[in-house]
């Protein structure tokens, strides 16, 4: 006698196979959706194994979803590794270049030192960095003469006009009330040793060395002190 094929069994196995296939498809679709998940706008930085800083754990998980090799390195923003063998001295020749960090460097050599210490700093263009004009600064002020002196040594008709200047260049602040007083000419040093031993000024700017800071103070009638050795 010939045994009849078990059609019911084959049909059952086919159904199970289809269910498993659909399940894998649904799981794949679910994973894809998780990669596009929305994270809360909370800044609690973490450093990924790809040396990138993510705003929070959720943002890191999104990157891990797209690339499983990206994992948590440690909590907090990624720390930049200091370069150990960077050049310490440059010729003191003024041929300014603008770095990608928006800072003006005296010449290509000084930019090279910065690049050595932070590889993200590159040449933007030759020449001093151009200040970007502010788009939403006030265009008009009442023409009332109550003069104030700006930190740039200019006299402004009133606080409003000074405010416009500050809006366009945040480094311009109020020096004192009243018109700027003319400062007697000073015999400021004209040169410094070409030694790169950076110091951080109390104005938040990095100076090539303490001599450059003193010369800048003298020439611009400023009272910037050394906040700390090294770059700001």
The whole-number mean of residue pLDDT values reads 78
General shape: extended
SSE string, helices as H and strands as E: HEEHEEEHEEEHEEEHE
Count of extended strands: 12
Main sheet overview: 3 strands, antiparallel
Descriptive report:
The chain has 232 residues and is of the alpha+beta class. It has four domains: 39-81, 2-Layer Sandwich (Wheat Germ Agglutinin (Isolectin 2), domain 1), CATH 3.30.60.30; 84-131, Wheat Germ Agglutinin (Isolectin 2), domain 1 (2-Layer Sandwich); 133-181, Wheat Germ Agglutinin (Isolectin 2), domain 1; 184-231, 2-Layer Sandwich (Wheat Germ Agglutinin (Isolectin 2), domain 1), CATH 3.30.60. The protein has five helices and twelve strands. The chain has helices at 7-35, 57-66, 108-117, 159-168, 210-220; strands at 46-48, 53-54, 72-75, 97-99, 104-105, 123-126, 148-150, 155-156, 174-177, 199-201, 206-207, 226-229. It has a three-stranded antiparallel beta sheet. The chain has a three-stranded antiparallel beta sheet with strand order 5-4-6. The chain has a three-stranded antiparallel beta sheet with strand order 8-7-9. Strand 1 (46-48) and strand 2 (53-54) form a beta hairpin. Helix 1 packs across helix 2. Residues 14-33 have low confidence and may be disordered.
What labels describe this entry?
5 helices, 232 residues, Wheat Germ Agglutinin (Isolectin 2), domain 1, alpha+beta, three-stranded antiparallel beta sheet, extended, 4 domains
């Amino acid at each position: 006698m010939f045994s009849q094929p078990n059609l019911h069994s084959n049909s059952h196995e086919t159904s199970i196979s289809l269910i498993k296939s659909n399940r894998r498809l649904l799981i794949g679709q679910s994973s894809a959706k998780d990669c596009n998940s929305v994270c809360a706008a909370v800044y609690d930085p973490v450093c990924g194994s790809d040396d990138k800083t993510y705003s929070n754990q959720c943002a890191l998980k999104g990157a891990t979803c797209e690339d499983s090799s990206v994992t948590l390195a440690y909590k907090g923003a990624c720390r930049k590794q200091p370069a150990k063998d960077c050049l310490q001295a440059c010729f003191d020749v003024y041929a300014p270049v603008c770095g990608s960090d928006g800072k003006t460097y005296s010449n290509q050599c000084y930019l090279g030192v910065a690049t050595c210490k932070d590889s993200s700093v590159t040449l933007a263009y030759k020449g001093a960095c151009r200040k970007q004009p502010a788009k939403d600064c006030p265009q008009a002020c009442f023409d009332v003469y109550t003069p104030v002196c700006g930190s740039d040594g200019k006299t402004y008709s009133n606080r409003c006009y000074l405010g416009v200047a500050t809006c366009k260049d945040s480094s311009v602040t109020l020096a004192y009330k009243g018109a700027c007083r003319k400062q007697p000419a000073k015999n400021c040093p004209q040169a410094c040793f070409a030694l790169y031993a950076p110091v951080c000024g109390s104005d938040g700017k990095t100076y090539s060395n303490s001599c450059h800071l003193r010369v800048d103070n003298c020439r611009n009638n400023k009272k910037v002190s050394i906040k700390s050795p090294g770059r700001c």
